[in-house]
Specification:
The structure is a single chain. Helices cover 65% and strands 2% of the residues. It is mostly helical and 283 residues long. It has a domain at 211-268. A two-stranded antiparallel ribbon has the order 1-2. β1 and β2 form a beta hairpin. α4 crosses α5 (66-88). 11% of the residues are buried. The model is unreliable at 259-283 (pLDDT under 50).
Length: 283
């Protein structure tokens, strides 16, 4: 997401320049206040407040055409109507928590997010000896790089990352003694192999997609997505990157050319199905 990239870049610059302006916080506040008015308000927040004209103007700044802005305005409006109808039926926080696992679309999104974050937990290493001055520069470099990519990566689910890190920190000392360092890291290597297949079969691509398009992506059942990965995506990968056939083409799984509204696992679309062999009517 573009706004997360700019937020993370600001965090990166803040860490880099913190020592020079440690006692002069006003230096960072002035440019932030100056450019604050140039940013557009959240369209979803404006729709929630009933300010549809302002929401449409904000969407026009965020989309290439007014038609796309109108499409997203309508899709977001329908989502809020669905949410209000569910809340009006007496939904309580406990029942909404249960929907994290009971509603297929939300369950698939949780599965993809938790799989990715748990796999990322095995990519961290804490050095035992930090006294060497030769390690200071690369250590500082990767701290800055971590800050630069954290928000668009693991930032939205910090608590999941913290949970995985806690489990890893508590179990690794015991595993290092029982398995030896080689065996312990070999065990984690095996888990990374398992994580590779889990991500391949369970985690769809979400790059450069809007929230409305993400609703559609996670409305596709896992079984259909796995079938696509095995029968379409994997053969394309072999032809393009192993056999080096430049004419190989990947048939897309999702078609966003038609306006579709996905709310709480239900998909509304026209009778024409743009996905031959990949149907989502049984969501």
């Amino acid at each position: 997401m573009t706004w997360q990239l700019y937020v993370t870049f600001g965090i990166f610059l803040g860490f880099s320049a913190n020592l020079a302006v440690v006692n002069t916080g006003i230096i960072k506040i002035l440019p932030f206040s100056s450019f604050l008015e140039t940013s557009c308000s959240s369209p979803r927040w404006l729709i929630k407040k009933g300010r549809y004209e302002e929401a449409f103007r904000s969407l026009c700044k965020l989309r290439f055409t007014e038609l796309q802005a109108a499409r997203d305005l309508y899709a977001t409006h329908v989502q809020f109507v669905q949410e209000k109808s569910i809340i009006a039926k007496g939904e309580n926080p406990l029942s909404r928590f249960r929907q994290l696992f009971a509603v297929p679309r939300i369950r698939r999104a949780n599965l993809a997010a938790s799989t990715t974050l748990l796999a990322a937990g095995f990519c961290f290493w804490i050095p035992g000896d930090t006294g060497s001055s030769g390690r200071l520069a690369p250590l500082a470099l990767f701290i800055f790089l971590f800050a630069a990519i954290y928000t668009p990566g693991e930032g939205p689910a910090v608590f999941v990352n913290a949970l995985g890190s806690t489990i890893l920190s508590l179990t690794f000392p015991w595993m290092r003694i029982a398995f030896t360092p080689t065996g312990a890291f070999g065990f984690y290597c095996g888990l990374n192999i398992v994580a590779f297949f889990m991500i391949f079969f369970w985690v769809p691509e979400t790059k450069e997609l809007t929230l409305e398009e993400l609703d559609y992506v996670f409305a596709v059942p896992i079984a259909k997505f796995m079938k696509y990965q095995v029968k379409v995506a994997f053969p394309y990968f072999c032809e393009r990157w192993i056999l080096w056939r430049k004419d190989a083409k990947l048939s897309p799984l999702y078609d966003f050319s038609e306006t579709r509204v996905v709310t709480y696992g239900h998909v509304s679309h026209s009778d024409a199905d743009p996905h031959p062999g990949i149907k989502i009517d049984d969501v």
